[in-house]
Write a structure and sequence with these properties.
elongated; mainly alpha; Arc Repressor Mutant, subunit A; 3 strands; three-stranded antiparallel β-sheet
């Protein structure tokens, strides 16, 4: 997943390592934790695969910073990772990272990703509801509340996915969703 995130951010602009880590944390850190200990080995691996290359720093600086950019091979790898036929939709973080770059997906891939995640959640919700019904008498109040939380979370995500799928259908093949959130993001109003 980190390869996809690094290539996706470098697709948008060239960055040095610190800037890349900062953007990973700001844009994707709500779904996945990134560390320098995993970032730099990933960049080095991508460089060995010729997916990323270093640019010469522009201007004089007291400290040399390696500036990275995506290559044509990196663009192809990014597309391959994004368009993969069997996404890992069970892992919420991996799904969200992939979805963060869905504007680069083919509309049918984006719909398949959303539908597959929705199907997984619907199946999970059905199992949780059955467990809750079956085990309610043998569970303590905290365990029941934890299961209810899981049910609420799955129902919320399904409603969100339904909205995204409806937007995909409404907008036809371009799949564009509204540029502005449907409700204000906390701390932005």
């Amino acid at each position: 997943m980190l390869e996809l995130a690094v290539l996706g951010l470098l697709k948008e602009k060239t960055m040095h390592g610190y800037e890349l880590k900062k953007n990973l944390d700001e844009q994707l850190g709500h779904f996945w934790q990134f560390s320098y200990g995993s970032l730099y080995p990933t960049i080095k691996r991508l460089a060995r695969e010729d997916a990323v290359e270093m640019e010469l720093p522009k201007g004089e600086t007291s400290r040399r910073k390696n500036v990275y950019r995506i290559t044509q091979k990196g663009e192809e790898l990014f597309t391959d990772l994004l368009e993969a036929a069997s996404p890992d939709v069970e892992d919420r973080g991996a799904f969200m990272i992939r979805f963060a770059f869905s504007r680069y997906m083919k509309p049918e891939t984006r719909r398949r990703l959303l539908e597959t995640r929705r199907g997984y959640l619907q199946n999970r919700l059905t199992k949780m509801a059955a467990s809750l019904k079956k085990l309610r008498d043998r569970m303590d109040a905290y365990s029941i509340e934890l299961m209810r939380y899981g049910v609420d979370e799955a129902e919320h995500d399904i409603r969100w996915l339904d909205g995204m799928l409806e937007a995909e259908r409404r907008n036809g093949t371009n799949g564009a969703v509204p540029a502005q959130p449907t409700r204000p993001v906390e701390g932005t109003s």
